[in-house]
Amino acid sequence: MSGHDHHHDHDHEHDNHYTPIQARVKALESLMVEKGYVDPAALDAIIDTYETKIGPRNGARVVAKAWSDPAYAERLKADGTAAVAELGYGGRGGEHIVAVFNTPEEHNLIVCTLCSCYPWPVLGLPPVWYKSPPYRAKAVIDPRGTLADFGVTLPEGQRIRVWDSTAETRFIVIPMRPEGTEGWTEDELASIVSRDSMIGVGLPGAASAEA
Prior knowledge:
By secondary structure, the chain is of the alpha/beta class. It has one domain (18-199): Nitrile hydratase alpha /Thiocyanate hydrolase gamma (Nitrile Hydratase, Chain A). The chain is 45% helix and 11% strand. The chain contains ten helices and five strands. It has a three-stranded parallel beta sheet with strand order 1-4-3, with helices on one face. The protein has a two-stranded parallel ribbon with strand order 2-5. Helix 2 (40-68) crosses helix 3 and helix 3 (70-78) crosses helix 4 (80-86).
């Protein structure tokens, strides 16, 4: 497993225990719902939007750019933070982003073994399963089995490398470009890049240009 020592001086959930700030936010949310100021369904919709749509679209643009621009891909390999910033993404959770590239020989998988460090500027909010103790443990102990849980089966000869995110360093997986996408625009390429493929538990979508 690759990664760095964890020094977590930031707010995260640790095994379902809230930090003081999180507890205050939860209490305020509950009070506002109770008073009728906030619709829980609306909150869920907003969270879903940032978790699965807005955030991952940023990362999908990074991947599409890397697929279509070899010079950008090299810059992304050399300095992920700077290359991501070229597209306008950065800030908290993106101070040090490392891009790891899948190859026919090696597939990359991202986990945060102690909490839920995640590259928010390019992937949005972390999914619930990413923060769960079962995923954090199994991804390290049985990465191939973890991928199978997500419906992904890799060739036996393709090794799996697990990267452990920290407060200092966060990772984004650059999946392999699917065959049959030659001549596609960056928007068309971005449309087949999923959040899960940028964590490593999924693969890019089927080759059908639906931008």
